[in-house]
Amino acid sequence: MVDISAAASDFSASAKSALTIDSSTDDANALNIGIIGCGRIGQCHARSICTRIPNAKLVCVSDVFESAALKLAKTYQVPMACTDPLDLINSPAVHAIIVCSPTDTHADIIKAAAAAGKHIFCEKPVDKNLHIIADLNNTLAQHPVKFFLGFQRRFDSHFRRAKAAVQSGAIGKPIKLHLTSRDPAPPPVGYLKQSGGLFLDMSSHDFDMARFLTGSNVASISAVGMADNPEIAAIDDLDHTLVTATFENGCIVTIDNSRASSLGYDQRAEFFGTAGSVNVGNVHPNTCHFTDKDGYHSENPLNFFMERYAEAYVEEMKAFVDVVLNDTPVPCGIEDGRLTVLYAAMANLSIKEKRAVHIGEFEKSTDGELSARY
C-alpha cells in the first residue's frame, strides 16, 4: 500500500509492503470504498463517488498496472493505492469494494471480499461459467455481506419511467417488448476473444432489461445471427443477432443487437400492450433540429454507453451506497447475474442447433446441480 504523496518511483516497492492505514480515512457518516480495476469503468465509478455521492468516500484503489492505480489515486486525491487487490480487501479502512477488473478475476476477488466481511459491487458478468456462479452464491450465503451486480440500465431514468408506466397499467396487459441495442463500432478483437461472445457480453444487458421491464423470466429462446465482420467471423462470434424469447408471464420479447451501426449508439425500446404502448427513444446531445428541402435533420444519438448512461452510473452507485448504509434490499444481485449467463447459453445453443431452447434444458435439476451441458 502506498500513500500517493510518495514519489511515483517508490510505488512498486511500497505496494508490496505491509498495509498501513491513515486514520484520517475513517468517517462514521460515510461508506469507505475501494475500487479494484482502474480502467474506464473504474474511473467512472471513482468520479461518481468523489463528486456526486457525499455519503461515500473513496479510500483506496487497486490495479495490477501500478501506473493506472497511481494516476486514479492522484486524480481524486485518494489516500491509498496498491497493485495487489488483497491489500485493498484486507484493509480495515475499506468497508466495501467495487470490482471493475477482468471477468476471470471476479470469483477470487468476491470470495476474498466476502471472507473479509466487505460489501461487494461487481460489474457484470459475475462469471462466464454457471457452475462458478453457483459456487459463489453458496459462498455469499455464508457471509453477512451485500452483493450488488452492476446492470446500470436499470437505473436509467428513461427505462425506469417505462417500467413505471407498465406497472401502473397504462398500457393494459403487456403483450410484446422489443429492445434495440446497437453499438457504433465493435470492440477490439483482442477484447472480443475473451468476452464470452455477443450474447454474454452485449445481450446480457438486454436480457436483464427484459426481465426488469416485464417483471418475468424467460421460458424459451430462439436466436439467429450472422458475422458480417471478417475479423469477428474468424473468432467464431457474431456481430448481428436477433433473439425471440417467450416469458413465463406470456410476453413475447425480441432483442435486436448489432456490434456496429451507422446511426451510432442505438438504444431503444417499445413495450406494446392491450391498452397502449410505451416507448424509450435514443438520447441526443441536444434537442435542436432543423428542416430544409432535403428533410428533417438532427444530431446522432450520444456516442456510446459511457455518455448515454452517465447519470445511470451515478444513480447505480448511489443505490449501492444506500443498500449498505441503510441495509436495504439489493435491487440487482447474483441471481440476476446468473440468469443473464443462463440466457446467453440458451441463445448460443439455439444458434448452434437452429431451434428454440427451453429453460428446463439449462435450469437446476432435481438434485440441485446445474445442467452439465454448459
From TrEMBL:
Keywords: Oxidoreductase. GO terms for molecular function: nucleotide binding; oxidoreductase activity. Residues 159-278 form the GFO/IDH/MocA-like oxidoreductase domain. The keyword Oxidoreductase applies. SUPFAM superfamilies: Glyceraldehyde-3-phosphate dehydrogenase-like, C-terminal domain (SSF55347), NAD(P)-binding Rossmann-fold domains (SSF51735). Residues 31-151 form the Gfo/Idh/MocA-like oxidoreductase N-terminal domain. Belongs to the Gfo/Idh/MocA family. NCBIfam families: myo_inos_iolG. This is Putative oxidoreductase YrbE. It comes from Gracilariopsis chorda. The lineage of its organism: Eukaryota, Rhodophyta, Florideophyceae, Rhodymeniophycidae, Gracilariales.
